[in-house]
Amino acid sequence: MAKARMRAGLTLCVALVAACRGGGVGGPAPVVSTAEPANPAPPAAGPARMPTVRVVMDDPRLKDAREREHAKDYAGALRAFTLARQGQTLAPADACAWDFVEGRLASATGDLAAAASAFDRATKTATATCELAPYATLRAAQAYARGGKADEAIARARAVPEALPIKDETKVLLAEALAAKGDRAAAVASWRALLASGPHMARWVDTAVRLATALLDGVDGDPSSHAREAYDLALRVAVEAPKLAETSGANLQRARATTLLRAKDASFSDALTDADRVKLAQAWIDAGEAAKAVAEAGAVLAAAPKPTPTGGIFCKAASLRATASAKLKGVSSADAWGDAILACAGDDALVSALYSGGKASLAAKRTAEGLDRFAKLEQTFPKHRLADDARFHAAVAAKDAGDETRFVAMMTSIPVDYPEGDMRGEALFRVALSHASRGDWAAAKTPLDDLAVREKDDRHWATAARAAYFRARAAAALGDAEDAKARYTQIVKDAPLSFYMTQAYARLAEGDAPAAARALDDAVSRDEGGAFPAADHPELHGPGVDRACRLLEVGEIEAAKRELAAAGAVGDTVPAEVAWVIGDLYNRAGAPEVGHALAKGKRTEYLAHYPVGRWRTPWEVAFPRAFEPLVMKESAANRIPAPLAWAIMREESSFYPEAKSVSNAYGLMQLITPTAQWMAPGTGYGFDEASLKRPEVSIAFGTKLLGKLRTQFAVNPALAISAYNGGGGAVQRWVAQRSGTDFELWVEQIPWEETRLYTKRVLASQAAYAFLYERPALAEVLSIPRNVGP
Length: 790
Prior knowledge:
mainly alpha, 41 helices, disordered N terminus
């Protein structure tokens, strides 16, 4: 009966979508009814013993503490927590977890004595009852160390079991506590051992600087005899972690070591070598400091003999300078890539320089130069994976220059000349799109038929069912309505909630609304039922996974990550179901950005199924309801569908509140400060970087902006998505240029690739969120007006 009710509700939903579309363009939003709850219960557990989490702060008694913690009012959260605990009788395991959370909150407020006391209480619970005890011991040690109580810190650090994934963290703490107590000699031995254990072990920067300082202070004997070791330690920090070089003390210790080394050898120079400068340039790029990267790489080239030697370090320096130049506003990197092409002559890196240089030249409107660079790439590296990419971009340049004949010839040649290349499909599609955009659907059929075979099992969000959809459009345009209907129906079945599935449904509903409803109903019914997980998985058992679950319950996300990695429960090699289970645990623990990340990459099997039955959990992991109360509140206030807000957030930041882009956009919904300033009036929120990294601010401003854009593009609300990425002015210009164009053809011809892909990805995500959590909102995605304007 439950399945029958689900099918009936879904049929009613999609039938009303189709019926309410009517004339389509500019009509009122359809009102959809559904018998299915918006948030149905998850399917019954399968035969496996599933790990579970019960997050402490989700306890109803801790509502006030939870809200204050979310607002980063840690002192208020601690007061609310202790008040809620008064008079409570807790089971030993629960008492341990509550003690741990109390310690974490106290630590966040800076009350180290209270933190140490709470963690100590947790350690006194029998380990068999409290799996958090080893971590509570370490956290107590850290609180004592920060509070200046070295003996207490040392005693607890030595009590942490060696076998746990936190051993490095414990050893770092122990060494620091020994040093604080005055036993720096023992600390030196520990610091050396830690740095030898791995180049980037936990807190390697602090450890390297502390060791360098101790050596120069004479802890291990004559400082002069250890000056070179200290210098190398400080230099490594300066080169590999330049943002921390000053604040960590690395620069100071490097200067001290240099003085000692010069006293022994007056010719000693602390100038960076070319190799060091290249490493530093890469580090500045990684840190988002493009101008500094340009300066360091440029220094290598400026000091080189003339003419500049080719290959090796000079090729690397020139390529890094060009890469960084491309990240600077108002700077064309075409010339910098020209220098890299010369510097990389005879080097394997020349192929990348030619490719990036060709793209930079085209972006700078230096078409002839760009085409020449792409031609040289094909000629010099005909077997390289970038050879077909070079021809593809050259073909696009020909089209932009108005040479349609050359464009078609070049694109058509790619599958022939590069049968193993990864641009074959895109080349065929661009040829078909060129024909279709001119209304020549007969000419579009051949490349679409070829592409449909190649992309039969394609699950990529940007291309799933693309060829099949446009082939159906061709059938309809050429008068074969029944063939088109059959093709649309197949897409609804084969490409669940993809961008082109939504377009296929809309086309099908235009001609036969009941058939569209039946197609979706049948497709969903196919995936109903089944237990999740379908099998038992040994990776989900064991003490490491159990400890990870307990850590998630008390908000120790990073520690849980380490436990799961050590237990072999994560990674590309684990069964897909294991990945989804772990992702679900993160979601339930309030870390949707971690669970969502597991859905990326190779985890695409769920995309072949609708989010019902055993497939609902994977979809929920991939599309989590992050920050749900805030999203629901602000979406309602700004009159936008909540699924749209989630879809934008998923694309913009992957649910990471501290996200910052290279263009200085901040927070969950990635707003730059001028836009935030525009949205701020009436909200009571600031619009600086710190404010925009607060979830409540970012969501309020982002949904407000979406509301304004949907008003601006009321004729077709989907255009607001394009405008969120590309700007309202650009979208208005593109609409004016192709007024009356079919929506999907308009999307595929958006000049900016980023905005083109963004629009499709967000619409697919909006469909997924609507299906999962707010079924009536699915109506909007399945009834996008068929054109973009009058």
